[in-house]
NrdH-redoxin
Amino acid sequence: MAEDKEVGTDQEGTARALEDGVVVYWRPGCMFCVHLRFRLRRAKLEHTEVNIRQDPEAAAFVRSVADGNETVPTVTVAGKAMVNPSMKQLREAVAAHAPHLLT
């Protein structure tokens, strides 16, 4: 099942997800984020969710990989960033970089 955590709640879990898991950077009001988060939960793909409005470092990371913009959802799979990926792209990235998450 999805691991829904805000940064700061479980730093160890978030650090582990950054290394070898899936991290979804999102913000409230983003319908693209709502859609992707729903699909991830439905697929039962373990992931960590980080609200960039509550974490300035996460917002800075998103800007660093999205040409200075806070484009969300931004997703990392085993540390590899993808800006606004489709579910197909995300599944392919998980298969390539974090196959241990597939069950």
The chain has one domain: 11-101. Residues 1-9 have pLDDT under 50 and may be disordered. Helices lie at 11-20, 31-43, 56-65, 87-97. The first helix runs from residue 11 to 20.
